[in-house]
Every structure is written in structure tokens, then in C-alpha cells.
Write a structure and sequence with these properties.
An eight-stranded mixed beta sheet has the order 1-2-4-3-9-12-10-11, with helices on both faces. A hairpin with a 3-residue loop joins β1 and β2. The two termini are about 25 Å apart. By secondary structure, the chain is of the alpha/beta class.
């Protein structure tokens, strides 16, 4: 039995009646586009960067004691896995009142507010967004989502002495250009703990071994080291362990059309097993402060 909480258009949350100190966070799978989202790109282009179906693949987690948090807004509107100040000033129509920290991502159009899809295709015909609209996306979607995730993790940490956070993402099956190994098949799963900065290595290794025991190839910090969701919330010294999980899309979906494929139910069953294993790990001896 689980309890549902919701902030319409922003997040849905499912809590187990007797929670383990575990959260599965799904920040880049939303499909509810805001009313002011006036992108000129096609729907197929918009959805090309969405981690499709993950909310369904992990929806059994609360049955095993883990909290499930799902961002309902699309990452093409605002990306919860980017830093709040990762904005390129060139994309703004108007002055921003605070210091910004543009990165290579935002300069390439894939920062906090994505401006391109499929690498080079513009999202907006006008090429800029009013500063008021960007601020509204931050205040209305980005911050409430991260505030809720922080609230959950802090509550579990206070109650149990520890909290384990798995941020759930998907990746294209092959490495894209211009990487020197472009075209090569990625591992089935890639775990990112920012090279040991956001989680206890023992927890990361436990997740790796659990997935490997299911027959998957698993790498660590190989394709993605972990971005804002784990950077922002992971604090191992304070008992909060955050790990990013990247799942290869062709394991469960047709990458050409986005539909679930024949492997979907198998992967979903395995993610249920993962949730059960992590909940048991989190409840185990020596995991309480």
C-alpha cells in the first residue's frame, strides 16, 4: 500500500506506508508541457532527449519500501538535472539580475533551459526567451521539484540516520559524435557518483553488483559521472548518498519511435528487484546513524 502526493504539473510522489530510507528520483521523464511552452520544434524532436518510460519502469519501488518521485514537466522546458545558474546570457531577452555560471552545456544549448534538440535543431523560432519566463520556470517547476526531493531526503535522514538516493535516467545505446569512440555500444547501465563524491563507495558497489547479477554490463562514471540531482543532494559525510543510474534505452524501448519494446517487462521486473535489494541494504545492520 502506498500514499500519493502531487503538485499538479510539477511532481507526483508515492510514499510507502513503512518507508525504507530510499528515494528513486525520476527528473527527466515528464511529458506535461506548460501552457507558455511555445517551442517551434516538432514533438518527436522535443521528446528525443526525454528519458521515456522510466516512471513506469521504477513505479514498483514503493511496494518495496522506497519513495518514488517523478517530475511531470519535460526536461525540454527546464532540466532538473542542470545547475540552476547554468544559463547562457545570449539566450535571454533581457537582463538577468543575478550572476550566472554558463557551462559548455548551456553554451551548446543544453543547459538549464534547453535551446536545441537533437544536437543542433533550434527549439524556438525566435532564438531567445524573456527573462520573466525563465524565472517562472525556475520558481514554478525547478525549485519546487528540488525542494521536495530535499525534504524527502532530509526527513528520511532524520528518521533513519541515513538516506539513499537513486536518480534515474536513460541514455542512447551508442556513443554520439564527436567523441573518438562514436558509434560504439554503451554499457547496459552506467552509475555516476561524481567519482566518489556523492555516495559511499560501498553503496555504489552494491548497486553495481546487484545489476551485474541480473546479467547486465555495468560501468562506473564511464559515460556520465552524475549531474545536478546527485551533485545538489548527495552529502555522504551527512549520511545522504546519491547515485545516478543511466540505463541504455534499447534495453526497453525502440529508439526510433519511442515505444516500449519486448524487453520492457523484463527490465521493469529487474528494477523491482533492484528496489527491493536497495531497501533491504538501507535497512541493514550498521546503516543507521
Amino acid at each position: 500500500m502506498t500514499v500519493m502526493h502531487e503538485l499538479p504539473g510539477v511532481f507526483s510522489r508515492r510514499d510507502p506506508v513503512s518507508p525504507a530510507p530510499v528515494v528513486f528520483d525520476i527528473p527527466r521523464s515528464g511529458r506535461e508541457y506548460p501552457a507558455d511552452f511555445d517551442a517551434s520544434a516538432s514533438f518527436s524532436d522535443l521528446h528525443s532527449s526525454v528519458s521515456r518510460h522510466l516512471e513506469r519502469l521504477y513505479d514498483g519501488a514503493p511496494e518495496h519500501g522506497a519513495t518514488w518521485l517523478y517530475a511531470r514537466f519535460p526536461n525540454t522546458s527546464i532540466d532538473a538535472n542542470r545547475h540552476e545558474r547554468d544559463i547562457d546570457p545570449a539566450m535571454l531577452d533581457g537582463e538577468w539580475p543575478e550572476p550566472l555560471e554558463p557551462s559548455d552545456k548551456s553554451r551548446a544549448g543544453i543547459g538549464l533551459i534547453p535551446m536545441v534538440v537533437r544536437g543542433t535543431r533550434p527549439l524556438y523560432a525566435h532564438g531567445k526567451l524573456p527573462t520573466a519566463q525563465v524565472r517562472q520556470r525556475i520558481d514554478g517547476y525547478y525549485r519546487p521539484y528540488h525542494d521536495e526531493l530535499k525534504r524527502i531526503l532530509q526527513g528520511l535522514r532524520q528518521q533513519h540516520g541515513v538516506a539513499y538516493h537513486l536518480s534515474c535516467h536513460s541514455m542512447g545505446s551508442r556513443i554520439p559524435a564527436p567523441a573518438p569512440d562514436a558509434g560504439q555500444l554503451r554499457s547496459d547501465f552506467d552509475l555516476g557518483d561524481r567519482r566518489g563524491a556523492t555516495a559511499d563507495p560501498a553503496f555504489t558497489e552494491f548497486v553495481r553488483k546487484t545489476l551485474a547479477s541480473m546479467g547486465y554490463t555495468v560501468t562506473l562514471n564511464a559515460h556520465f559521472i552524475g549531474a545536478e540531482c546527485v551533485r545538489r543532494h548527495g552529502a555522504p559525510a551527512q549520511g545522504v548518498h546519491s547515485l545516478q543510474i543511466e540505463m541504455r534505452r534499447d534495453l526497453y524501448m525502440d529508439e526510433a519511435n519511442g515505444a516500449a519494446n519486448a524487453g520492457f517487462e523484463r527490465v521493469r521486473a529487474h528494477m523491482n528487484e533492484l528496489a527491493a535489494a536497495v531497501a533491504a541494504y538501507a535497512r541493514g545492520p550498521g546503516k543507521h546513524g
